[in-house]
Write a structure and sequence with these properties.
The protein is an alpha/beta fold. It contains 13 helices and five strands.
């Protein structure tokens, strides 16, 4: 297979390491529920948050779902937001380096993530993603989210490339399937050999 002209990388579990799960227990204890109940509510409303639901409304929904009124004050809400953001900021530097090398050799790169503004604001303080990638497409900023085909097409337009020219890398099977349906090359980024498989495709 020929080397792709473009590379689209997901953030969570690709450019970052898996979310740190250790905060779910203390968070659940703080709001008076179990870690399992809190985690289920957290993910139940996450898609809406990533698509643009304000963070205050997101946490209101989470707390209502678990039946808690113990975290209704601003201090506790701020703590939840802070811990949530921090849990997503463990970077996989090997993938960042691969993206930079691919771009330095003439490839075009895109950052494509389903995420909310709080995580992305912190990420932009840590790493200048708008300068490191040719296109940065974040669900909460464009009102679209994977696996909606429109977000892939929007990203491709920003890159100026067609689907067969571009490799899309994501850890979620549904996002990979959505990308493949519009003709993107894909790599399901999972397993201990994921980085080696990606390197083989872009070298």
């Amino acid at each position: 297979m020929t080397r792709p002209a473009g590379l689209i990388l997901d953030y969570g579990n690709v450019l970052s390491r898996p979310q740190d799960q250790r905060w779910f227990g203390p968070a659940a204890a703080r709001i008076g529920t179990t870690a399992e109940t809190f985690r289920a509510a957290y993910w139940q409303h996450r898609h809406a948050y990533d698509a643009g639901l304000p963070v205050s409304e997101y946490w209101q929904r989470v707390l209502a779902t678990v039946g808690s009124d113990r975290a209704s004050d601003a201090v506790d809400r701020a703590w939840l937001i802070e811990q949530d953001v921090a849990s997503w900021l463990h970077y996989d530097d090997d993938v960042w380096t691969l993206a930079a090398d691919f771009r330095a050799r003439g490839g075009r790169t895109a950052f494509l993530s389903n995420s909310g503004p709080e995580v992305m604001a912190r990420l932009r303080r840590d790493r200048r993603i708008d300068h490191l990638f040719d296109a940065v497409v974040i669900s909460c900023e464009v009102g679209l989210s994977k696996p909606d085909p429109h977000i892939y097409r929007y990203c491709l337009d920003r890159l100026g490339l067609g689907p067969p020219q571009v490799l899309f890398v994501d850890d979620r099977a549904d996002n990979i399937e959505g990308a493949a349906r519009i003709g993107l090359r894909t790599l399901h980024f999972e397993g201990p050999d994921a980085l080696d498989r990606l390197r083989a495709l872009v070298r």
